[in-house]
Design a protein that fits this description.
The protein has 148 residues and is mainly alpha-helical. The chain has two domains: 62 residues; 55 residues. 82% of the residues lie in helices and 0% in strands. It has four helices and no strands. The model has no long low-confidence stretch (mean pLDDT 76).
Length: 148
């Protein structure tokens, strides 16, 4: 076994123990990360505004369709009111409503998913604010209160 040191390996190990980047690099990295966060925030705000605009534009047609559906149901109930005195008619009515339950429950599941998404987004925003506030000490009292 040869005990001589290889100069190339020695130089590489020495370069590895030196700090890889200057403090300017860390400042530049922090600026890039902050710019990316601002861009994501603006994208989210733009998406929300676009969704509100689309919802506002579609609202009249949705309201008109809902009014038409309610009117049709009301007309159907008044037309079949005399037939609902028979037990078989109630069975048909209940089975029809029962066949619509999967549609109703899937609609409720979508609403629940949206609520879960909103709660997760709020929790993530809260965690991010908390991490930022912990990264920046608000005063010099914290080192004095640390337990040794």
């Amino acid at each position: 076994m040869i005990d001589d040191r290889d100069p190339l390996l020695t130089r590489l190990f020495a370069e590895q123990s030196q700090p890889a980047h200057e403090s300017g690099f860390m400042a530049q990295l922090a600026n890039l990360l902050e710019r990316d966060r601002r861009r994501q925030r603006m994208y989210r705000i733009g998406t929300i505004i676009a969704g509100v605009i689309v919802a506002a534009l579609l609202a009249p047609w949705i309201a008109q369709g809902a009014a038409l559906a309610i009117g049709s149901v009301a007309a159907g109930i008044t037309a079949t009111r005399s037939h609902l005195t028979f037990p078989m008619a109630w069975l048909v009515l209940c089975s029809t409503v029962g066949s619509l339950l999967p549609v109703i429950t899937s609609g409720l599941a979508v609403v629940g998913d949206i609520e879960d998404f909103v709660l997760q987004a709020r929790a993530a925003a809260w965690r991010e604010r908390r991490a930022r506030s912990q990264a920046r000490p608000c005063c010099d009292v914290a080192p004095a209160l640390s337990v040794r």
